[in-house]
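In this notebook, the sequence line spells out the residues, with the fold written below as integer tokens. This is how one looks.
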Amino acid sequence: MAEAEAEESVGSTELPENFAEELATRVVVILQKQMDPLIGGAEAADYVYESCYPDHLSYYLDALELLHENTATEKFAGLAWNGLINAAVNDKKLDGLLTNMMGAALKGYYALEKPDVELKDKKFSGYSAVMAMTFIKMVENNASNDDNCAEIYSHLVRQEMEIDAKAQQEEKETGRSSLPSLQKMYDDVIDFLATRSDFKAGSLNQDNPYEFVGVLLEKLRGSRRYVMQDVMNQRALEKKKQLEMELENQLAGAEEVVMAAAPFTEGLGFFVKEKRYNYKFLAVEKIRMTLQLLGSIAGCIYFLLGYMNLWGINWIDGVGLCIIMVIFSRVAGARSRFQYFYPVDVSKELEQNSTQFINVMRHMSKDQLEQFVVRQIKVDRNQNFLSMVPEYVKYLYAIMPDRKNMVITVDELSELVENSEIEVAKQLRGAL
């Protein structure tokens, strides 16, 4: 009759005030009825699942706390959790119960729902104390249960690391963290066990009654290291995959690389012309200025001859001839007269073709760009400009806006230029 009333109260939407006490009593009754503790633990876990899952698991933690308050019932807390972890191996719903129970414990821990527990002048969270004491009872019941303790503790570490990662992400986005600045619960559990295992012997022959707690402590510390490393490895792998996907999305496609060949080839030709522009321009200017200077010198000679009245030239003829020669040299040697001889300025065309290729070059990987440059070195049209290919690549990088957004680094580009110089040397030797 009492069991029926308990089940009826559990099924109702509003739980009674003493629900945790009823739950603790029911768990003890189930465990006492079964001779096999594993079967009893599995039945108790099923009852907790039907009674508390998923929204009332905090009452189950309260029930465990009540069991620890009495030396006659505290062992049942260990039996209940040991039965739960054994049954969860073959029952997915109980595995979900364990996961949600750790979530409820973490929620209560950070919400400071339970008062602190004092042990040897140190304070610990009520949730950490319940978990640690349950672990102690599990091992006290049977030393081989330390693996089950480690399994439950691993769930706690993994879930708390996930919660902490979400809180850090939220803090980056909003500037505020949803978690209070408390010690991690998995560290608090370890500290509680370390404090419990600490024993000062009154004599040399006195044994440490909590020696098994020290063994359990090392087991859990090992589990913590393993889980934390596993989580960090998974995060690193996920981050690597994400970066690879982002890189693949940023990399230039095969069609883009093929289409970039024409602007590169055209740009290389214009680059060579632009490189030689100043030399050709200065050469024409030297000739033009020399002709102007020769005409002016000839005019000065006529002026001197007329001034000295030599060779039948009077001073009036000398001045006239001087003026005529100066004017003639200026007109005949004007820049417009030499326009045909000046090199063509191709800076506009060079800029257009270079910009087209830079838009693709920015998204090329080192391998893509290196293979592209090697192919350009072997193009027949570029054979006359082979020595300028590495220089042109440097030029493209120099005029590229926002170079930090390039896929390849400066060091990779420097290595690529060196390799291209080697390929150019090979091509030139092969052409001999």
The beta strands are 117-119, 122-124. The chain has two domains: 2-242, 257-431. The first helix runs from residue 2 to 11.
